[in-house]
Amino acid sequence: MFFDRNRLNRGSVVPGIKKLMDQEKQALQTLSTLLQLGREAAAAPDLKALSFLIVNDTHRLIRYDRALFWRIDARGKIHFQAASGTSRIERNSPYIVWLKRVARFITEQQRAAPEPAKAQPVEQQKLSDSLRSDWQNWLQGSYPLYALLMVHDNTPIAGCWLERKQKWTEPEKELLQHLMSQYAQAFHMLELEAKQSSWGIGSLWQRVKDRRVRYGVLFALCCSLFLPVHISVLAKAEIAPIDPVIVTAPMDGVIHRFSVAPNQWVARGDLLLTLDDTQIRNQVEITQKAVQVVEADLRLSHRSGFQKREDLAKIRILEERMAEQQSKLAYHRELLARSRIHAELDGLAIFNDANDWLGRPVQTGEKVLSLADPEHVEVKLLLSVQDAIHLPEGAEVLVFLDIDPLHPLDAVLYRQAYEGRAQPDGSVVFALHARLRNTEKPPRIGLQGTAKIYGERVTLYYYLFRRPLVIFRQTLGL
Fold first, then answer.
1. Do 177 and 94 fall within a single domain?
2. Would 447 disulfide with which of 190, 239, 283, 442, CB 3.0-4.6 Å?
3. What residue ranges in 23-178 does DSSP mark as E strands?
4. Average pLDDT, the chain
């Protein structure tokens, strides 16, 4: 029986070639997955997305049962970022607490090592006694492996923890080390971008969530409550004249006509207003007629007194009547003169509107208007009794007029009322007076605004909680 040697050789070579081709195909697929994971890591938008990719998509290259990823901050503190198969890590769970201690132990060993660490399994014998005691509770039957993410100066910035039931091979370690190098570059770039925007609201909130930062901020706030500050209150302000001349009604009557307009400049002796003098003028005319009648009777008595002694006796009576009628005439003429009110000095006539006064009855002494010098003005302040504080003489005042709130006026407090007075709106206020520092160009009389009055120095705590404490005591009586 003859055998075909060439056919026999071909039958034994074909399976070997097929196996070699399968190995090359698998190697190419592994290399393609490695490159694809590197590109996806470089395209990650933020650290959270990259952490999710590391713990979940690394499974496409190397098989494992569980993966966890942690970050190392500038102080060397471990922060677990992600875990495979879950979207949230319970950072206070016993396993995470133990694993954090292991990660800290591994990181400290790497910092003390002269060469950069590679991806390698975790050996129970090399751990400390406290860490080995819990090994069986969490890793019984598993083979853990860790890989540190390091930058160019061999400083670990993060780490990856992998677990599975099979031992790790050398090719898998090499692949994992290459992949972690790509992850490290992407993580480092995203970390730099996050630091550049460290003044954003999100990163600021991350800092505030740190316990030491919270305690530091709380301590700084407590200390700031004892800082000395000037206590201040707000009051209504009005530009008012200094020592104005008040023009009042000299007698009871009705206002007939105004001869000046509001805020008009008047000179001394100018006519300001006139009261209705119809009745007074009639009285003057009647009294004049009575005086004329008495004068005629008196002349007649003088002529007939030489002949009749009875007429001579009436002369004394007529003279007394004459004096009485002349006194009445002088009185009525004086009332007639008083019905025409004149200015006693130069100044502005300050009143609201003439139409509000025309035909209005006034009593003796009732204020109608005032005369003031526009160059001598002050600030009149109305401070609510609820905002009243101790204000020393010479306290600083800033006046913000409504017509120009961006340029406040400096003033000095020089007088304050000792009791409050009721306002038309029902509120009770203290009247304060302040002098303007700059009097070169005084503001117009009547302008209104808001004034800020500075008191004594107090602590910031008292400044902030003075009103709440007052309300609390008024409500509860404590």
1. yes
2. 239
3. 66-72, 78-83, 120-121, 143-150, 156-164
4. 82
